[in-house]
Amino acid sequence: MTTVLTPRRRDRPAGHRTPRRRRPPLLMGAGTLLVVLLALLGPLAAPYSPTARLAAPFQQPDGHFLLGTDVLGRDVASRVLSGGRTIVLTALAGTAAAGAVGMSAGVLAAMVSRRLGDLMVRCVDALAVLPALLIVLVLAAGFPGSGPAVVAAVALATAPFSTRVLRAAADTVLTSGYVEAALARGDTRRAVLRYDVLPNIAGPALVDSALRLVASLHLTATAGFLGLGQGGAAPDWGRMVSENVPGATLAATPFLAPALLLVLLSVGVGLLAGRLADTVGRGAA
Questions:
Q1: What is the residue-wise DSSP string for the chain?
Q2: For residues 151 and 216, what is the distance between their CA atoms, to the nearest angstrom?
Q3: Which of 8, 27, 15, 39 is nearest to 240 (CA)?
Q4: Which has the closest alpha carbon to 204: 168, 177, 234, 238?
Q5: CA 74 to CA 243: how far, in whole Å?
Q6: Model confidence over 159-198: pLDDT tens digits?
Q7: Contact 237, 35 (CB under 8 A)
């Protein structure tokens, strides 16, 4: 009997195994999406009013109160379902405002003269020196009970970093050969901005916004924990943690449920932002 030997492929060494493709982080994305949907749509499913006092403080979970009651006898499940919308919307609004300011200031600093651009960045850096929490405290204390004040504070705290990142991205595009060729053939700076600069910094801008969203979530949750923003009766995951920690020995769910949701939301968004940064980086390479 003749044995037929199959030639080994020369481009694959002996013992080589084809690496498995990494599956997309479906579980991570699904978990983060679930928390976001819970935060945005949760108020529609709340069984009771989140501000109504219904029973004794720190009552254990039962058939009427699935997560028990909090320090004032309010239904914890209703407050958990209603307390995430403010955090998510405030963080998104602050991130959008910071992205708009960072994009405008960064691109403008890249397109003007080098000296004027450096001066603009130095002015922005003066704001970046201030601690983010201090900005939140000053604005929220100056406008008590104001949600827009927290949004403005989050935007001011994160916009300086976006300005630097987007200025560097725009500088890279403006010093490339095809932009210099476009200017040499007579294209206006407005046309270069519209057709060359903005499309090519869209990826870095998206990644930067995702990373700033993580910081915005942390600042917004911290503002709630300190009792800033909306009135004290309004449900807020951060405020729920600070309110119910003193009764931790009596009931754990009033502070543990919102704390766990905050951790899942922050970690999930952070991991997705890192994944997005890797994807955009590989695409640029």
A1: -PPPPPPPPTTS-TT--PPPPPPP-HHHHHHHHHHHHHHHHHHHH-SS-TT-B-SSTTPPP-SS-TT-B-TTSBBHHHHHHHHHHHHHHHHHHHHHHHHHHHHHHHHHHHHS-HHHHHHHHHHHHHHHTS-HHHHHHHHHHHSTT-HHHHHHHHHHHHHHHHHHHHHHHHHHHHTSHHHHHHHHTT--HHHHIIIIIHHHTHHHHHHHHHHHHHHHHHHHHHHHHTT-SS-TTS--HHHHHHHHGGGTTT-SHHHHHHHHHHHHHHHHHHHHHHHHHHHHHHHH-
A2: 9
A3: 39
A4: 168
A5: 12
A6: 998 999 999 999 988 888 777 787 778 778 888 888 888 8
A7: no
Q: Which amino acid is at 148?
A: P
Q: Is 13 exposed, middle or buried (0-12, 13-18, 19+ CB in 10 A)?
A: exposed
Query: Whole-angstrom Cα distance, residue 126 to residue 130?
Result: 7
Six-digit token string for 73: 């006898």
Q: How many CB atoms lie within 10 A of CB 163?
A: 28
Task: Tell me how far CA of residue 165 lies from CA of 60, 107, 159, in angstroms.
Answer: 49, 10, 10
Phi/psi-derived region of residue 100, left when phi > 0, alpha when psi is between -120 and 50, beta in every other case: alpha
User: pLDDT, tens digit, for every residue of 189-222?
Assistant: 888 888 888 888 988 899 899 889 988 998 898 8
Q: Is pTM beyond 0.85 here?
A: no
| Structure-block tokens of residue 14 | 């002996």
CA dist., res. 234 & res. 238, Å (int): 11
